[in-house]
Design a protein that fits this description.
- By secondary structure, the protein is an all-alpha fold.
- Helix 1 packs across helix 8 and helix 2 runs antiparallel to helix 3.
- It has one domain: Ferritin (Up-down Bundle).
- The radius of gyration is 18 Å and the shape is globular.
- 63% of the residues lie in helices and 0% in strands.
- The structure holds fe (ii) ion (2 copies).
- The site of one fe (ii) ion (FE2) has 5 residues, from helix 4 and helix 5.
Length: 257
């Protein structure tokens, strides 16, 4: 995955990518800082969600992969924090604050929701890590070069988390052998999908957000909130149906649209 030298979309298209915070116009700086803060907040929060389930999965592979996911999120959190700190005292304060926040205090709602069972862990990876993948995918080759470089590896980590979730969701729905070791099946994974699906759609943010539209015109994100949500929805709906589960209604339990 190559990072080009130039800005690839938006109003700055064709200009050289931004390399340092000093080069940024105020509005660009504010927009980027908000995006990196939001991203960083999800990493540490999801480590906290995963932590009680480390070493609890039904198979050795589950236990290994889930620990790897938690480690990836922590590592991503430190990468995002380093980016935040490069913004000077304001970014440093934000990074420090993120290390203090605990469940219930995280800025994005879905990350304040505990995992209640192993199947719930699977439902989260299936629905929410795919959200993470879409968010990172939207910033591949973005106009801020240091962020674009980090995206090249992070995007694959999220793909790994989401595909693990998708595989185990399928096994819970369809595979007798895994259902036996997990002591759960289709009803349980359907309930987990029902739980995380509205959170997943909410996590894309408000339709018509000025901030999201600015991030597109500054070449930071390739799609605004509603376009990215629509792409995700088409993808996850197909994945849910393909493993014999029902797609929850779009409006159920939604808080942000
Ligand atoms: Fe992540
Ligand atoms: Fe992830």
């Amino acid at each position: 995955m190559r990072v080009s030298r130039g800005v690839e979309w938006g109003e700055m298209r064709g200009m050289q990518k931004v390399e340092t915070v000093e080069q940024m116009p105020d509005e660009y700086r504010e927009t980027l800082l908000k995006i990196i803060y939001a991203l960083a907040s999800t990493e540490f929060a999801s480590v906290e969600q995963h932590q009680p389930w480390i070493n609890q999965g039904p198979t050795a592979e589950d236990r290994f992969i889930q620990a790897q996911i938690a480690a990836d999120e922590a590592h991503q959190g430190f990468i995002d924090s380093r980016l935040l700190r490069s913004f000077g005292p304001e970014g440093t304060a934000m990074a420090d604050q993120l290390l203090e926040l605990r469940m219930g205090e995280h800025p994005i709602d879905a990350f304040n929701v505990p995992f209640e069972s192993w199947v719930d862990v699977v439902g989260f990876c299936f629905c929410m890590d795919l959200v993470a993948w879409y968010h990172l995918h939207a910033m591949l080759n973005c106009s801020y070069a240091p962020l674009a470089r980090e995206m090249t590896s992070m995007v694959h980590e999220e793909k790994f988390h989401a595909s693990f979730g998708a595989r185990r969701a399928r096994d819970l729905s369809l595979e007798k052998e895994y259902q036996n070791v997990a002591k759960a099946g289709r009803a349980e994974i359907q309930a987990a999908v029902n739980k995380w699906y509205p959170h997943a759609l909410d996590t894309f943010g408000k339709t018509g957000s000025k901030f999201a539209n600015l991030s597109v015109s500054y070449g930071i994100r390739k799609w605004n909130n509603e376009d990215l949500r629509a792409k995700y929805k088409e993808d996850i709906d197909e994945k849910i149906s393909a493993i014999g589960l029902d797609v929850p209604s779009e409006d159920r339990n939604r808080k942000i649209s």
